[in-house]
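Re: weekly structure request thread

Next one in the queue (270 aa):
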Amino acid sequence: MRGPMLEANYVSKTFGLDGALAARVQALSEVSLTVAQGEFVSLIGPSGCGKSTLLKIFGGLTPAEQGEVYVRGDRVTGPHPHIGMVFQEDSTFPWRTTLGNVEFGLEMRGMARRERRDRSKATIDLVGLTGFEHRYPAELSGGMRQRVAIARALILEPQALLMDEPFGALDEQTRIILGEQLLRIQGKLGQTILFVTHNINEAVQLSDRVVVMTARPGQIKATFNITLPKPRDSRIIASEAFGRLVAQIWTALREESLKGFVQATGAQVE
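Done, posted below.
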């Protein structure tokens, strides 16, 4: 039985100016979630429901207002050495090559040049960028830059990856292909992944479990176990079982999406 890698216990978070009650917004309300070692879990929900906030709390980038989060039983009070993070925004350093970007973390740790170069080249090969070691980000496609960002996180050998819509800015075909590569990497390294997405197809393609969150304040509404066969590649998207899971998740998500739309725009939806 796999033990827990990530745990959130009754986590709540409110944003706003102290004393300005009308301006305060509750992002999360008593969220409890456990992610097992080696599991791939996707969080999906309407915009503003606290998905990214929960990810940042797990990563030690923002504190919980109430409740606690743990990584392998250690309470998170700041950035944790077992956690790697990948965001939607292009986070590559434009003045560094692919190799320079990937080895940056090891350089900051003081690792010797020869060792960090060898490890960086092996990680670049793992994400399928061999031959592009000396290219700058401006010379790479958006999908390739995201692979550089993933490699930069992987090289530090985190036990868990927190990924906040890492393929959100990419076209649908590229998202599917990179998702397939991400599953291959996870299968090889056995890492735990907590993945935020707005894309139901992407969540079903990648995940062991899909967690649907409510509109703000975010709570867990439903959890779906994805029992599609593994190893899993993008051909699974054409299967009837895949389509049924997408429909079930959308049924759970639709009401929350409408509530989120009303919260964001003030418009009424019938």
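The mean pLDDT is 90. Residues 208 and 227 are 7 Å apart (CA to CA).
Next request, please.
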